[in-house]
Amino acid sequence: MIARILVDVPAKAVDRLFDYTVPPVLASVLEIGMRVVVPFGNRQLMGYTLELAETSDTGKELKNISSILDIEPYLTPELIDLAKQISMDTTTVLIRVLETILPSAFKAVYTVKLRLIDPEGLSGSLRALFKDSDEILYDTSTAEIIPELKKAIKNNKIKQIYELKSKSRPQVERTVLLIDSGYLPKTEKHKTVIEYLKKQEGFYAKVSTVLSECAVTESVLKTLEKNAVIRSFYQEKYRPVVLNHDEFDKRVVLNPEQQTAFSDILKSLGRPETFLLHGVTGSGKTEIYLAAIEEVIKSGKEVIFLVPEIALTPMMVHRFEARFKNQVAVLHSKLSIGEKYDEWRRIIRKEVKIVIGARSAVFAPFTNLGMIVIDECHEATYKQDDMPKYYAVDVAIERCKHFGIPLLMGSATPNIETYARYKRGYIKLLELPNRANHAEMPDVEVVDMKAEFKKSNLGSISELLKSEIQLRLDKHEQTILLLNRRGYSTLVICRDCGNVIRCPNCDISLAYHEMDHSLKCHYCGHKEEIKKTCSKCGSENLRYLGTGTQKIEAEIEALFPSAKIIRMDNDSTRTKNAHETLLDEFCASGDILLGTQMIAKGLDFPRVTLVGIIQADSNLFNADFRAPEKTFQLITQVSGRAGRGELKGKVVVQAYNTEHYAIKFAVDHDYLGFYQYEMGIRKLAKYVPFYFLVEIKISGLNVRDVFLTGKEIVASLRRSLSAEAIVLGPVLPPVGRINNRYLCQILIKYRKEPNLDEQLFDIMDQFASNEIYVNIDKSPM
Ligand code: ADP
Ligand code: ZN
Ligand code: ZN
Q1: Residue whose CA is closest, atom 23 of ligand 1?
Q2: Distance CA 595, CA 592 (A)
Q3: Which of 617, 666, 748, 771 can pair with 655 through a Cys bridge, CB separation 3.0 to 4.6 Å?
Q4: Ligand 2 center to residue 492 CA distance, Å?
Q5: Is the CB–ligand 1 distance for residue 285 below 6 Å?
Q6: With contact defined as beta carbons under 8 Å apart, do 224 and 193 qualify?
Q7: How far apart are CA 117 and CA 21, in angstroms?
Q8: pLDDT in tens, 70-84
């Protein structure tokens, strides 16, 4: 038998399958999707078995597979095909895609050992290495001896040994697998063991169990292993993830609108239909997901449920756990590597029916999928920023097509592209225009901060917002304040010379962090002590500009000294359960929840009756064609947090550009109006959904090389693409240097380029190198 193996080396040159023979003892065990160790050059490498065949047509003599790492495959044939598709779509080598699909526990790491073969003629420094033992661990820090070492290895004086080890240190237990079930046992004890293993699912069992159940000794197993009847290996134990199963399952009777949407979904089960569930926040979308998922599970099939970020949606997860108990696996980004691995195995073994998780859960290795659900489908977190730059929504569409099943996407503020796909007839629209519990939509009031400034209110909180907060404090109701800033940082500027303290590695100013009085770079992590004087002119007149959450917190503390304020931002939520703890605290006894974008999502507090947006327009003028859309979505989403219960809500939107269409449509709760206006602009400016975009980023240590490469790529693209395609750039992005690497950017706008994938792979081949990184994104966000 021949196995076609993809080796674990992320390089274009080996981005293909290599043929190996499978030794007879392994032939009955090896399956597509298992990891193996194979000789490759002079090394032993980890690889993935992607195909099996009877014969090879390479015409060369083949090497044997050395060993098999898994006892069950962790990749299904469908996932392998999907990976190949993503590799093409994202211009990424296949091994990188597989690494992304599999939990990181599967990534192999190697230790290199050196064995002394012949000390004759070795230099003193090399001999010194082996003074205690003939076999030592290679220490990569001893760079100066590398040239000598290389020579000694070449002359067979020293041998290199590669050892594979798993990254996470799993708990292991020794296990035996029956590999020859036709073996005729020679003794009664052998027979007992074989019969016992035959009865086990998968023909394997823990050694300790076999010994006690069959009342045999280790030596019996040894003999059987010697005769190739069984094989022993170490298998990892599960580390169970503790879930909260005592959650109360509140069941509701679907209202007529929900019922209509629900029955439309039911009719499509077993067909590859895509639904957009467009419902205002609080309209009962989650209840529809729960009902539909329940039906799919009843039919014996499986469901993937995607959320933007698990840590931000604890309430959603609890509702699922309450309803589906231990049929749910949660793929949490803050799970340890080992925990993620265990969840993956529970899925493979069909111990769960539903997977809830963020972006990467779209790869859950189900083989009998019945539906995929994507909540808050407009969120940018469904796009991966690193290679492979896949978009989970596209991956979900692909998988639903494969299984012939519906995809259900829900949002109060669908992306323009998604809504346009409905308008063009590609997806079905389900609408929930009203809140489920008949709670009214909140009143929205806009405050012009320019006028506020003229009234000499120099703070960040307008007079209106101040009095509304006070009203809530008096009535023991709650307030959510959102600071709309991506950088959420305060920069330090010298009032005398205008010098802004910058990161030494990046073209960006450092942000001041009050917690430890330090200056930090959000791009590269550089951190320095705050200085008393300007580094340029020595002046002591340093000023803190911009508004960070910490600064606003100080401001509202001063305004409302008796209020209990909970701040949620990147700083306060670093640790594993910080989100939940802070939210619980707010729910129980908080007055004001102050936070960044992260508080806009999925929160449902009945006592919140006021939402204030501090700087609604602060991202409107970013160099991003989606800026108005993002602003519209943000205002709509946070507004949805107000007045979810019995009490009517109010929203105060503070902005400088109060006349901007994104703000006006959001204030009027007018999605369709916004959609039509925005489509007009997209058409004029030749953006999605009228044109497709490709973004190419080039980076390197030398700014001139980066730009020259950019120019050559543009020239090459202009030659190979059709005349209709528009190639823009190379230009400097807003932050032109990150971690000492200079960047430039190219944008392609096109309608139809049938050979684009190959052309982009060619660009990578031709221009990417160790010095110059080329990064291609086919659906930039
Ligand atoms: P969404 O997901 O659209 O924001 P949810 O499903 O969370 O909306 O529903 C909002 C609130 O309304 C929840 O507290 C939910 O329990 C309640 N709710 C939803 N549907 C119904 C219904 N049919 N009858 C009563 N309450 C409902
Ligand atoms: Zn100065
Ligand atoms: Zn930096």
Answers
A1: 254
A2: 10
A3: 617
A4: 11
A5: yes
A6: yes
A7: 30
A8: 666 889 999 999 999
d(CA 553, CA 561): 11
Nearest residue by C-alpha to atom 4 in ligand 1: 282
**Low-confidence winner among 380-389, 617-626, 670-679, 732-741 (lowest mean pLDDT):** 617-626
Can you spell out the DSSP letters for 557-569? HHH-TTS-EEEES
Q: Hey, is 144 helix, strand or coil?
A: helix
**Residue to probe by mutation, ligand 1, list 251, 252, 276, most atoms within 8 Å of CB:** 252
Does residue 565 carry a pLDDT above 50?
yes
What pLDDT digit, counting tens, does each position of 120-134 carry?
888 888 888 888 888
Testing ligand 1's pocket by substitution, the residue of 257, 277, 287, 379 carrying the most ligand atoms inside 8 A of its CB is 287
Cα 743 to ligand 3 centre (Å): 14
DSSP conformation class of 252: -
Which 3 state secondary structure label does DSSP give 234? strand
Please tell me if the CB atom of residue 434 comes closer than 6 angstroms to any atom of ligand 1: no
CB of 526 within 8 A of CB of 483?
A: no
pTM for the model: 0.78
- Got the DSSP string for 185-204? -SSHHHHHHHHHHHHSGGGE
| DSSP conformation class of 308 | S
The alpha carbon of 526 and the centre of ligand 3 are apart by a number of angstroms equal to 5
Task: Render pLDDT for 753-773 as a digit per residue (tens, 0 to 9).
Answer: 999 989 998 998 899 888 899
**How far away, in angstroms, is 490 Cα from ligand 2 center?**
17
| Cβ-contact 511, 487 below 8 angstroms | yes
Is pLDDT of 297 > 90?
A: yes
Q: What single-letter amino acid sits at 168?
A: S
For the chain, give the mean pLDDT: 85
Question: Helix, strand, or coil here: 435?
Answer: coil
Higher per-residue pLDDT: 24 or 614: 614
Supply angle C-alpha 677, 683, 689, rounded to 5. Answer: 95
Q: How far is CA 610 from CA 282, 378, 442, 479, in A?
A: 16, 24, 9, 5
What is residue 530's predicted lDDT score, i.e. its pLDDT?
Answer: 80
Q: Answer whether residue 775 shows pLDDT above 80.
A: yes
pLDDT in tens, 660-675: 999 999 999 999 999 9
| Residue in the structure block whose two tokens are 């951190």 | 527
Model pLDDT, residue 278: 97
Listing DSSP states for 407-468 in one string gives EEEEESS--HHHHHHHHTTSSEEEEE-S-TT-PPPPEEEEEEHHHHHHTT--SSS-HHHHHH
Residue 608, classified by CB atoms within 10 Å of its CB into exposed (0-12), middle (13-18) or buried (19+), is: buried
Whole-number Å distance between alpha carbons of 170 and 381: 30
Cα–Cα–Cα angle for 129, 131, 135, rounded to 5 degrees: 70
Tell which wins on pLDDT, 562 or 115. Answer: 562
Residue (of 459, 446, 440, 485) closest to 609 by Cα position: 440
* Ligand 1 close to Cβ of residue 190 (< 6 A): no
Report, as an integer, the average pLDDT of 231-252. Answer: 59
Residue from 253, 286, 432, 434 whose mutation best tests the ligand 1 pocket (most atoms within 8 A of CB): 286
Question: Cα of 547 to ligand 2 centre, how many Å?
Answer: 21
Is the minimum distance from the CB of 375 to ligand 1 under 6 angstroms?
no
E strands, 292-350, where?
Answer: 302-306, 328-331
Q: Which tens digits make up the pLDDT trace of 476-505?
A: 999 999 987 644 456 777 878 878 888 888
The pair of three-digit structure tokens given for residue 8, joined into one six-digit string: 């674990």
d(CA 393, CA 387): 16
The residue nearest atom 27 of ligand 1, judged by CA position, is 436
CA–CA separation, 416 and 625 (whole Å): 12
**DSSP classification of residue 64:** B
- Pairing type for strands 369-374 and 302-306 reads parallel
Q: Given the structure tokens 């060619």, which residue do they identify?
A: 762
Q: Which ligand is nearest to the CA of 504?
A: 3
